[in-house]
Design goal:
The structure is a single chain. It is built from 13 helices and no strands. The chain is mostly helical and 271 residues long. Helix content is 72%, strand content 0%. It is globular, with a radius of gyration of 41 Å. The chain has helices spanning 4-17, 20-26, 30-53, 56-63, 77-96, 110-118, 122-135, 139-166, 178-182, 192-207, 212-231, 237-256, 261-270. Helix 6 (110-118) crosses helix 11, helix 8 packs antiparallel against helix 10 and helix 10 crosses helix 12 (237-256). The longest helix is centred in the middle third of the chain and has 28 residues, at 139-166.
């Protein structure tokens, strides 16, 4: 009797677990298994079909966000400082462009400012140097004029090359004039007029004997020509300041490659 009681209890348990209400807990339904297996097969086939067509580069590109949606959370200090200075330069240049158009606050003085800018243009200076070179009869004068002509030609070529590299536009949309196209002075950085007047003023101060009032007037003329380009809206402030720096460097370059009197006489005889 005691051995038959455990056997009967085990049979009762098996009968209870085999009931319909307990089958769903112990064994998954066949329909669910078939649905799951079919979905896995379809996803596997889709992945196998898309695998060869999409490479690792395309997957990385799909995971990357577009640049417009990305935000630089930790910009560098140099980038912040550079962008701040650039914004200040643009704002101040626009404020100082008082002769940028006829409708500007100083629009009536635009023609006078343009005339001042012509005094620092390359074409009149090259033409004047050639005329003086033809009329000069002294060896010292011809030497100075030949090196001055070399400095003017170097200035035009260097500024044109730097402007082509930078391709920075001015604060206002102003089309260059005919003389600007002849000297390839079509962009803003660096300012060609500023580099030229800085080089000329330094050249004359070193190689001509001038009285102190004339020296002061020469420096004031260079400053006025340089900043007149900001007033007409042709250049930024930094364009003019960089032009002054490049003009001084051009003068130092001409001093390094200074042509002697014999070389100048040989070139004049060939010409």
């Amino acid at each position: 009797m005691p051995a038959s009681q455990p056997r009967s209890r085990a049979r009762d348990r098996n009968n209870v677990l085999n009931r319909a209400e307990f089958l769903s807990l112990n064994q998954p339904l066949k329909g669910n298994q078939e649905g799951r297996s079919s979905s896995r097969k379809q996803s596997g086939q889709a992945g196998a079909a898309a695998g060869p067509s999409t490479g690792p580069k395309e997957r990385r590109q799909s995971q990357q966000l577009p640049e417009e949606d990305c935000m630089q959370l930790n910009p560098s200090f140099k980038g912040i400082a550079f962008n701040s200075l650039l914004a200040i330069d643009i704002c101040m240049s626009k404020r100082l462009g008082v002769c940028a158009s006829r409708a500007s606050s100083w629009g009536g003085a635009r023609s006078m400012i343009n005339l001042l800018g012509i005094t620092g243009h390359g074409i009149p200076w090259i033409a004047g140097t050639l005329i003086c070179l033809v009329k000069s009869s002294t060896l010292a004068g011809q030497e100075v004029l030949m090196n001055l002509l070399l400095a003017l030609l170097l200035d035009i070529m260097i500024v044109a090359g730097l402007q082509k590299l930078a391709k920075r536009k001015g604060p206002y949309d102003i089309n260059p004039g005919l003389l600007d196209y002849l000297t390839m002075d079509t962009y803003a950085f660096p300012a060609g007029h500023a580099s030229r007047v800085a080089m000329l003023s330094k050249f004359f101060l070193n190689h001509l004997v001038l009285a102190i009032p004339l020296r002061i007037l020469l420096v004031l003329w260079a400053l006025c020509v340089g900043f007149s380009r900001v007033m007409i809206g042709r250049h930024h402030i930094t364009d003019v300041l960089s032009g002054f720096v490049f003009g001084y460097l051009q003068f130092r370059l001409v001093e390094l490659i200074w042509m002697s009197s014999n070389t100048c006489q040989m070139l004049i005889s060939i010409w």
